[in-house]
Amino acid sequence: DALVALNEEGYHNHIHELRPGGALIYDSSQVDPAGDNHPHYPIPVTGLAEQLEFPRGKNLVMVGALLELFGLPLGRGEQVVQEKLGKYKSQLSKNLDSLNAGFQYVSENFDHFPPQLTPPEGEPEERLVMTGNQAAALGALAAGCRFYSGYPITPASSLMEFMAQNMPALGGK
């Protein structure tokens, strides 16, 4: 029902998957959907991030925009950012500013996207979210691995970091 495109490559690779009548939500400074007849929601994601002097906040600008488009509460988005990115204290205020900038832009420039999402009642259910490398490391630990040696290079760095953080509690090195 919606395609979010932050760059031309993402737009061109996925526009064929968007159903007729589905909405195109895109970074207006990075994507040129000329000739596309889907409903458009151009968001100046890059420009808003640059105004905040925080180009790394582009994704959160778009997340804030999506919260408002889909009628979801900003407060819940802020809570998730604090939970997931709060460990980066020096950047937390910039991350929250980025989220708010996207939300504010949409509230001032667009009506809500027609299919509204309704947040679940009560407290959100806690879920375990991890990367593939974290899952592989957790599987190795569950299988009895108590020694890991590695070199810090992508894509193995996150596996090594997970093992270094969690293995000592299980008597490993």
Structural overview:
The chain has 173 residues and is mainly α. Helix content is 46%, strand content 8%. The protein has a 3-stranded parallel β-sheet. Helix 3 crosses helix 5 and helix 4 packs antiparallel against helix 5. The model has no long low-confidence stretch (mean pLDDT 90).
Q: How many individual helices?
A: 7
**Biggest sheet: strand arrangement:** 1-2-3
Strand content range: 5-15%
Count of strand segments? 3
Gap from first CA to last CA: 48 Å
Topology (SSEs and partners):
Layout: E1 2-5, H1 8-14, E2 23-27, E3 40-43, H2 45-51, H3 58-69, H4 74-85, H5 89-109, H6 132-142, H7 157-166
Parallel strand pairs: 1-2, 2-3
Question: Which short descriptors sum up this protein?
Answer:
46% helix, 173 residues, three-stranded parallel sheet, 3 strands, mainly alpha, elongated, 8% strand
